[in-house]
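Hi support team,

I submitted a single chain yesterday and got back a structure, but I'm not sure I'm reading the token output correctly. Could someone confirm the output below corresponds to the sequence I sent? I've pasted both exactly as they appear in my results page.

Thanks,
R.
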Amino acid sequence: MSAAPAAPAAFAALFAPYTLRSVTIPNRVWMAAMCQYSAEAFGPNAGVANEWHFAHYAARAVGGTGLIVQEATAVSPEGRITPYDLGIWNDTQVEALRRITSFLKAHGAIPGIQIAHAGRKASTDRTWKGGAPVGPEAHGWQPVAPSAVPFAEGHSLPHELTTDEIREIVSRFAAAAERAFAAGYEVVEIHGAHGYLIGEFLSPHSNRRTDEYGGSFANRTRFALEVVDAVRAVWPEELPLFFRISATDWLEEEGWTADETVRLASLLQEHGVDLLDVSTGGLAPHAKIPVGPGYQVPFAARVKAETGLPVAAVGLITEPEQAEKILANGEADAVLLGRELLRDPYWARRAAAELGAEIPTPAPYHRSW
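Hi R., thanks for writing in. Yes, this is the structure output for that exact sequence:
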């Protein structure tokens, strides 16, 4: 039902196509993964996408977004942030997701999915209800982590994972990637940011282990690379793999740093990651973060400049000219919008109009453009 693609304006980097492996994304306006906390919490439909999820993602596809990265989708029940998260640990969930990916493709958007494990930040309530930890009476469970260190005061003491349990979670990520392909996704993003399980292993603030998964940089990055290797082994060679990272914990002492991000980026590229989605923070609730327009862009720009790995920038990117400048200056290869796309599902169409570019319009909407 979409009109034939139109050539973008020569100066609008934001609307130039971008190819990774065999996948060509029609523009550089991408939707960042943002949890909706709207699935059923228990029973046969736990973690299954429903009408809300379909409408939410469909609107952004019709709105012209080039790549839509689905919210953090748990690789196991205990990997959910809340009991209401989407999951991809069974085939019932896959069937519901196929409807979403089919619609996105039909309307010109590339469907992506972020596969995730919440670690010690799991078993909490929905954000609009305060996000406090929940127990069994509210369908909660004991979180797991690299070390028995809670996220914050009042949060549950997590179970410290054994090496066998770590290997089981690695296999869960691989199984999730296989199901993602079966569901029709063309991009998989591994969630290694915001203080969830992979990020907990990376940071010495949360990782106090003394075995092969803790201590040195090589040991703290071991789990992340094992997950990447397991996913890349089952994810089709012709399809791109992303990794989301918090480039810094914003801690003065004993935190993950920008220097370590650059080191890991080079390793991720060697292990088959095609693009780094560069965010920051989320590991420690007391971290002081200097939030402002484009405040995370310099971290993405540094990774790109020092490693050559393609990057996407995210974080208070709200205006078309701002996004265009980031790309035109070579600071990133794409921009990921979060809250701005919640406010305006048609942001890409507005940006195209402001920048003098043209993007395909669904035929039923032809009178409006």
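A quick pointer for reading it: The longest helix spans residues 163-183. Let us know if anything else looks off.

Best,
Support desk
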